[in-house]
Write a structure and sequence with these properties.
Helix content: 40-55%
Number of helices: 12
Distance between the termini: 36 Å
Mean pLDDT: 95
Radius of gyration: 17 Å
Order of helices and strands: HHEEEHHEHHEHEEHHHEHH
Strand content: 15-25%
Low-confidence stretches: none
Number of strands: 8
């Protein structure tokens, strides 16, 4: 079998029929109720979130949602959130803290939406505020990279106590095309950039950036979705039990140390 390259992983992460956030939410959790809006501007469909139960435990779940067809991708803005999406996510996370519910997030975005309207409504501030607030939320947070995890658009819902990646997901400061454009002044060198960025799950696990790799079949998560869900369910259950043993002070101290050691 030929070696799977970093660029192969990028292509698998971007696969149109790859399972999306809502697929994971509906398979992993019961009683999901979606909540809408940031109570300021509007409801961003690139981010979904709400309350659910996991093994009988109330949780808050948030995910970046792409579409599987052209019409749905347009509706979901290709998984690129506007600031109101990040503000909706933060509203739900603060609500989770108020009611002492663990938070589980699903990351899958090519990046935050770079449009003029998004910038006018404070895209950078919204992302920065999420990073700040997530770092001090007094409830357990598990973050799962299921596809693309690019730039601050991904990190805005990825400050957690446990960070997990699917085997064919990528997690990086920007897309390989963007990286190639900036460093090599040539966006056609994206394949080379994908190797140099060290953005695969295997690379990031070796650097200590992520805690766990969830195995996938050769053709991607959709080829054996039940097996992926089974492994994820086991990991979430184990992690929530472990994190529940920490005091709030210990939880925040451990989270702080986790991200300090990445710097």
């Amino acid at each position: 079998m030929a070696k799977i390259t970093a660029w192969d992983r990028v292509m698998l992460a971007r696969k149109v029929d790859r399972p999306k956030a809502l697929d994971y939410i509906h398979e992993l959790f019961d009683d999901f109720i979606e909540l809408h809006g940031d109570r300021n501007f509007g409801d961003d469909k690139a981010i979904v979130g709400g309350i659910a139960t996991f093994e009988g435990m109330p949780i808050t779940v948030i995910g970046e949602q792409k579409g599987k067809k052209a019409k749905e991708n347009m509706e979901r803005n290709f998984g690129m959130p506007n600031p109101e999406g990040y503000r909706k996510a933060l509203r739900l996370m603060k609500q989770a803290e108020k009611f002492n519910r663990p938070i589980i997030t699903f990351i899958d975005t090519p990046g935050a939406y770079p449009g003029m309207g998004a910038e006018e409504r404070g895209q950078g501030e919204a992302i920065a505020k999420n990073l700040f607030e997530m770092s001090k939320l007094e409830v357990p947070i598990i973050c799962i990279v299921i596809g693309e995890g690019s730039s601050g658009g991904a990190l805005a819902i990825a400050v957690g106590d446990r960070i997990v990646m699917l085997e064919n997901a990528i997690y990086s400061i920007l897309s390989p095309e963007g990286f190639a454009s900036i460093l090599y002044k040539d966006s056609t060198k994206a394949k080379e950039a994908a190797e140099d960025m060290k953005a695969t799950a295997k690379d990031l696990k070796s650097f200590g950036v992520i805690d766990k790799i969830i195995k996938e079949p050769e053709g991607g998560a959709g080829e054996a979705f039940d097996d992926v869900i089974k492994e994820l369910r086991t990991y979430i259950e184990k992690s929530l039990k472990e994190l529940s043993t920490y005091s709030k002070k210990e939880l925040l101290e451990n989270r702080y140390e986790k991200f300090r050691t990445m710097c």
